[in-house]
Design brief:
The protein is of the alpha+beta class. The chain has 16 helices and 22 strands. Strands 5, 6, 17, 19, 20 and 21 form a 6-stranded antiparallel beta sheet that branches. Strands 7, 8, 9, 10, 11 and 12 form a 6-stranded mixed beta sheet that branches. Helix 2 runs antiparallel to helix 7 (about 175-190). The protein is globular and about 65 Å long.
């Protein structure tokens, strides 16, 4: 890594050498003098805990004990132009995913091979087919709370490229809303209060909750509750609870109940008009914060609970349609030439979406798939191998790709896609984690931007479509995965630079 601080839009060959990544201009001078650093870390930890930027420990779980969530001490730089472009694009992506979710022929053809070899996606698809048969005359309204994730790709002039689009359990809107005021406090403590003007406001929490409230209002049953589907054990409790508390704050008459899939199997039933009843409380909106990975379905009971909810008239976030639309295989299919014209109605929208795509390749047992395998084996460092999973920690990178591919037969490969690796620029900063040595070392970091969107509609119309906030996750530049809940990343705020 070179020591120079490069212009954020320069290519790496203009910085040092063709193999090195550019370093973004920092928010404030780094390193921070040690005495000042120790003082502000001590204050910032307390600020985080006292304002709810916290999580329960996975290593030493205790439901009565909270620790601060990992965070970056000073906001990380992100290109202003690319941030603003991603914000503007979100309503178009909302529209795109809504139309994808309601295109039965597209989902069937795209996932045809995957559901044969990936048991989890196959189980989801069987629920989908059941809903198409049993609810064919029902105008199914869906609520999408989406998050489109980006890395700035410094091999392409720091243009933001989409990592993935999340349609289920799009997390950290709650805690991320606290990061801007936290970093405002820290910057003032470091005598850099003038930098706050370049921290964008972040209404993610209220924006996501307003989407749920709007769905609740559409159903029009004042005594119905909003149901949160959660894990048996919740570590990311602040992020979930803040949504619950915010809903009560905005509309005190709305009750929120929390249940696991196992509890739904035991306690829920359908009423005579397909209303969902949980212990005799009617539910009009279901918000899934669990159900996105196989471990959430330890027995057939949990799958039966998911099917029961999908059959109900409650608005699901996401519906089974939206869940399938968020699979990696669908993301790969949308990047094929000409496919976007199926869903978007003008060339300007299509070109804007195409600009954020990186190379995405099928690994199906055909000529296209064989060509992708050859490409990955020849230059594995240029690619990421992705399965149909959410939640982080599932991807295969670089030199691990050849051995992984050689262990799969041609059919098994259909459960995966190949994606060109995005090489983001570096920023310098401090990651603060519970229990780690103080003072921390200055680290090379990379940041992933998430833009939240909310959309409501049925197959024929969209009645609500908004961009509602953002989040920034930052990790060590040497780390492949960056999930905060998985313990690999840290919460952050974007410091916008020109």
């Amino acid at each position: 890594m070179c020591d120079s601080v490069c212009d954020p839009i320069q290519k790496p060959e203009d910085c040092c050498s063709s193999m090195e990544l550019p370093v973004l201009k920092p928010c404030i001078p780094i390193p921070i003098p040690e005495e000042q650093l120790l003082d502000v870390i001590d204050k910032s930890k307390d600020w985080a805990i006292m304002h709810g930027a916290g999580m329960r420990s996975k290593a030493n779980f205790n439901p009565d004990v909270m620790q601060f969530a990992p965070f970056v001490l000073v906001p990380s730089s992100f290109p202003r132009k690319e941030f603003e472009k991603a914000v503007k694009l979100q309503t178009i992506l909302n529209e795109l995913m809504h139309k994808v979710a309601h295109d039965t022929d597209f989902l069937r053809s795209t996932l045809a091979n995957t559901i044969q070899v990936d048991e989890f996606t196959g189980n989801l698809f069987r629920i989908y087919e059941d809903i198409l048969k049993t609810c064919s005359n029902q105008a199914v309204i869906s609520l999408g709370l989406l998050r489109s994730d980006y890395l700035a790709h410094c091999l392409d002039a720091c243009v933001a490229k989409q990592v993935e689009l999340n349609t289920i359990a799009s997390s950290f809107g709650g805690i991320s809303s606290h990061m801007t005021p936290m970093h405002s406090y820290i910057l003032h403590e470091l005598n850099h209060g003038d930098k706050i003007a370049d921290l964008p406001e972040n209404p993610a929490l209220s924006g996501l909750c307003n989407g749920m409230i709007k769905a609740w209002e559409i159903i029009g049953k004042p005594h119905a509750a909003i149901l949160f589907i959660v894990e048996d054990v919740t570590y990311n409790i602040c992020d979930q609870r803040f949504h619950e508390f915010e809903i009560r704050k905005i509309n005190p008459s709305i009750r929120v109940i929390r249940k696991s899939l196992t509890e739904i199997y035991k306690e829920a039933k359908l009423g005579p008009n397909r209303e969902l009843l949980v212990n005799d409380t009617e539910v009009s909106v279901i918000y899934f914060r669990a159900g996105y990975e196989p471990g959430h379905y330890p027995t057939q009971n949990e799958w039966d609970a998911r099917l029961l909810m999908e059959r109900s008239l409650a608005i699901k976030c996401p519906s089974i349609h939206y869940h399938l639309a968020g699979t990696k295989k669908v993301q790969q299919a949308l990047a094929k030439p000409g496919i976007l014209k199926r869903f978007l109605d003008n060339d300007e929208k299509i070109e804007a979406v195409k600009e954020i795509f990186t190379g995405l390749y099928s690994l199906d047992a055909n000529e296209e798939g064989e060509e992708a395998v050859k490409r990955a084996l020849k230059n594995p460092e240029k690619y990421v191998l992705k399965p149909q999973r959410e939640g982080g920690g599932n991807n295969i990178y670089g030199q691990d790709i050849p051995s992984a591919l050689k262990k799969m037969n041609a059919t098994e490969r259909s459960a995966w896609i190949l994606m060109e690796r995005i090489f983001p620029p570096i920023s310098k900063g401090y990651i603060i984690r519970p229990g780690e040595a103080i003072p921390p070392k200055v680290s090379d970091l990379v940041s992933e931007l998430g833009i939240f969107g909310a959309i409501i509609g049925d197959k024929d119309r969209i009645v609500y479509n908004h961009q509602v906030g953002h989040m920034l996750r930052t990790k060590l530049s040497t780390a492949n995965e960056g999930g905060v809940a998985a313990g690999l990343g840290a919460l952050d705020s974007p410091y916008l630079i020109d």
